[in-house]
Amino acid sequence: MFRTILLPTDFSEPSARAAKYAAAIAINARANIHVISIVESRAFEEDLKPLLKQFIHDAVDETLSILGIREKPHIQFEYTTMVNQSPANAILEASQKYQADLIVMGTHSRTGIPALLLGSVTEKVMRGTTVPLVAVGRGENQLEKFHQLPKKILAAIDFSEASKLALQQAVLLSRLWNSTLHILHVIEMTISVPYPPVSIGPVISTEPEIVENTRQALEALVREYVPEGIPNQVVILEGEPCHRLCVYSKEKEIELIVIGTQGHSKLERWLLGSTCEKLLKNVEIPIWIHPHPNRIK
After folding, report:
1. Phi then psi for 160, rounded to 5 degrees?
2. The domain that contains 22 carries what CATH number?
């Protein structure tokens, strides 16, 4: 399923969490890990490689301890430093150059004016990647919390082609990790204004037939994409998608969210933001982001 995992690092705490997550996936899938770091000057390139090796060595040792594995698995590691580049562009270039099947990286969950002006590296990679991206958030390390790879996976569905691909990815992960799959759609609340206008003003409502039609559509997706033998449940919620996803994930102790990107324009992202970008800033568990179909080669 995965042959090469790309692990960008800046040696921060988010990168350390991402390294343990990448190691756990590599151990389970027997994949190799390519670690990269971006430096400002060629003079630091050789000095950084021993640090990269020690960084991944510590991550693997800690991961083996958390997972209760005594024998060190055979995983090949590559180490690369890239000089004087935009971090996001360097990561995307490395993903293509080293034929990565998956990118795993930490997110600093920046919000406010700095994020508006600069954007996070993770968000920029998300918008340009042609392979899945796992963004490991600011919450406590999931391996330390659950002592295993995810056993509860949430697939966020909006019936787009991107979300259907994300569902297929979630099914593969559920089969690989023997996980339960939560297939969730959020109906965004609509505002209806009575005609002619009356004093009570706008009323927030969702018609029962909309909920029932949505349920039937989700169940049809399950029949099409989810093989028998994979435990799953269909969930329909109402409200703002990011908020409802975050609340549901916390209530049900979801360990991984799988979602597809929509490929919004820059103007649409600036005005509304995407659900993926909002999740990156708000959710604490890892998010598996499947690239938009137009970017997959």
Report:
1. -80, 165
2. 3.40.50.620
Name, in order, each residue with C-beta under 8 angstroms of 172's C-beta and a sequence gap of 6 or more: 1
CA distances to 108, 121, 246 from 7, in Å? 15, 13, 26
Please give the tally of structural domains in the chain.
2
Asked if 160 and 260 count as a contact pair (C-beta separation under 8 A), the reply is: yes
How confident is the model over 220-278, as pLDDT tens digits? Answer: 999 999 999 999 999 999 999 999 999 999 999 999 999 998 655 454 444 344 788 88
Question: What is the domain range of residue 264?
Answer: 150-297
Q: Do residues 156 and 258 make contact, with C-beta atoms less than 8 angstroms apart?
A: yes
| CB 288 within 8 Å of CB 187 | no
For residues 154 and 122, state if they share a domain.
Answer: no
What is the DSSP-derived secondary structure letter of residue 295? Answer: G
> Is residue 231 domain-shared with residue 155, that is, in the same domain?
yes
Q: Are residues 215 and 104 in the same domain?
A: no
Tokens standing for 233? Answer: 């449940």
Rounded to a whole number of angstroms, the distance between the first and last alpha carbons of the chain is: 16
